[in-house]
Amino acid sequence: MKTLLSADDLRTGVVSMADRINRSQAGKPLTVIGVLTGSLVLLADLIRLLDMPSRVGVVQASSYREGIKRGPLTINVELMPKIATRDVLLVDDIFDTGHTLSEVMGLMKRLQPASIRSCVLLRKVGCSQVDVEPDFAAFDIPDVFVVGYGLDYCDAYRNLPYLAALEPGEISRDSE
Ligand code: IMP
Ligand code: MG
Q1: Number of domains present in the structure of the chain
Q2: Which atom of ligand 1 approaches the CA of 144 most closely?
Q3: From ligand 1's centre to the CA of 11, what distance in Å?
Q4: Is residue 96 annotated as a catalytic residue, yes or no?
Q5: What Cα–Cα distance (Å) separates residue 146 from each residue in 78, 149, 173?
Q6: pLDDT tens readout for residues 32-50
Q7: What is residue 95's DSSP assignment?
Q8: Which of 148, 151, 149, 145 is nearest to 167 (CA)?
Q9: Is 49 left (phi over 0), alpha (psi -120 to 50) or beta?
Q10: What residue numbers bound the domain in which 36 lies?
């Protein structure tokens, strides 16, 4: 495993992204919705840096069922608070192909929020397969499989305080 971003690097990137969100929201109330499970660590850090009155909720979306292989996406909105007429910020860990963010945004738009924008910790460069882009991204990274700061490989490593890239030998053949 190779460290890509230290805990200090992550902090700097998240603080800078929070500043941009604060400036653009200009004190207006915001409903912040984290995509479970990968956004948990970012969500916890980000909401403590926001300076407007905020509501916080979660939505569950999962596509990586095993290892690094993308399976069909399932979205569970049962835990999500009311978003109609509210300014919403969707928070996810990483924008890879973009299918997760694009589908969750599409579903949430149908619930008629006043506005909806998205932010991610990481954007994988050159991997997008959709025509939406996150509104805020803390870091652009190359196309490598990363873990830590909420991101997992087979449900492990979410608790690492830094971000690391798995080496090819650390990814099981079955999961590719
Ligand atoms: P997308 O739908 O391809 O953009 O993938 C988004 C989801 O896939 C993220 O919310 C992550 O859960 C997962 N994912 C994509 N790339 C990685 C990675 O490098 N490490 C861990 N999870 C990833
Ligand atoms: Mg995820």
Answers
A1: 1
A2: 19
A3: 20
A4: yes
A5: 29, 10, 16
A6: 999 999 999 999 999 999 9
A7: E
A8: 145
A9: alpha
A10: 8-66+73-141
Model confidence, pTM = 0.95
Residue with tokens 């996150």: 134
Name the closest-CA residue to atom 22, ligand 1.
Answer: 151
CATH number (domain holding residue 89): 3.40.50.2020
Pairing of strands 30-36, 87-95: parallel
Tell me what pLDDT residue 68 has. 73
171 assigned to some structural domain? no
**Inside any domain, residue 155:** no
Which amino acid, 129? Q
CA 64, 66, 72: angle at the middle one, nearest 5? Answer: 45
Residue 124 located in a structural domain: yes
**Ligand 1 touching residue 64 (CB < 6 A):** yes
State the virtual CA torsion across 124, 173, 102, 109 in degrees, nearest 10: -130
Sign of the CA dihedral running 106, 44, 138, 100: negative
Residue 96 CB less than 6 A away from ligand 1: yes
pLDDT at 168: 85
CB of 145 shorter than 6 A to ligand 1: yes
Domain-located, residue 165: no
